[in-house]
Amino acid sequence: MPKTQKKSSNCIKTGFECSFCGKVVKNEATFIRHSCKQKKKIDDRNNVPNRIAYQAYSRFYTRNKKTAPDISNFESSKVYGAFVRFGEFVVLNKVSSIEIFIDYVIASKRGIDKWCDISLYTDFLASMAKSETWDRAIERNIYIMQEWATKNNREVKNFYREMTPSGLVHVISLGKVSPWTFMLSESGQDLLAQCNSEQLSIINKIFDFKIWKHRFSIEKSNVECAKKFLSEEGL
Ligand SMILES: [Zn+2]
After folding, report:
1. Ligand 1 centre from 67 Cα, in Å?
2. I need a surface site. Which of 39, 58, 63, 158 has the fewest CB within 10 A?
3. pLDDT value, residue 226
4. Quick one: which of 149, 227, 201, 137 has its CA closest to 175?
């Protein structure tokens, strides 16, 4: 067939077709550069925030149903962007118990747009700390101190000694340390004493000092064990 006769719609369609949006481009270089909403979503699937977003979406939609929604349902859903923002929030705040946090925000019955409120995360940290036993809290905190010591070539016993008051506010806001260590160790208490009223009020919002002092007054034998352990560690 002569070339001129090939100007049929079939011929126009030969080229490179995006399987997501259906756009057809003539040359390969343009095709490689081609980006559309759908293609970008697929490219982003393996990003950590996107994986968390899909995990949260699946958990949200399978509360009462057995089957998890397909990832393509997720990507075409109206709430895709909001869930990805939630995933980014989880990554940014280095949330350590991601699954528990997802269940917590779902149980809060707040809309997805409210899941990134810092106050919700603060409440979560407080409730986690409440349910954590003293030995588990200390074990978890010591692990974090060991990580810090190895990374910075320091000694675990100096974790709070080499920290500034604003550093303490920071690790508390990240949920890294528990009152079981910073309120009961000598070095933690020294550091708390250096905090100004603004810093103390931030800490108090996460770990209400009144509640924790009350808890320590009830769990007397645990407090003794914790203090003994922390002092043996030189903390
Ligand atoms: Zn496309």
Report:
1. 29
2. 63
3. 96
4. 137
Q: Provide the β-strand partners of residue 25.
A: 16
pLDDT class for 2, splitting at 50, 70, 90? very low
Backbone dihedral angles phi then psi of residue 69, each to the nearest 5 degrees: -70, 145
Rounded Cα gap, residues 200 and 209, in angstroms: 9
Give the Å distance between the CA of 39 and the centre of ligand 1: 6
DSSP 3-state of 200: helix
Cα(81) to ligand 1 centroid in Å equals 18
- Could you tell me the distance, in angstroms and rounded to a whole number, from the CA of residue 140 to the centre of ligand 1? 46
C-alpha 47 – ligand 1 centre gap (Å)? 19
What's the pLDDT at 51? 96
Is 199 within 8 Å of 165 (Cβ atoms)? yes
* Ligand 1 ion: nearby residues, β-carbon < 5 Å: 18, 20-21, 36, 39
Number of other residues whose CB lies within 10 A of the CB of residue 218: 8
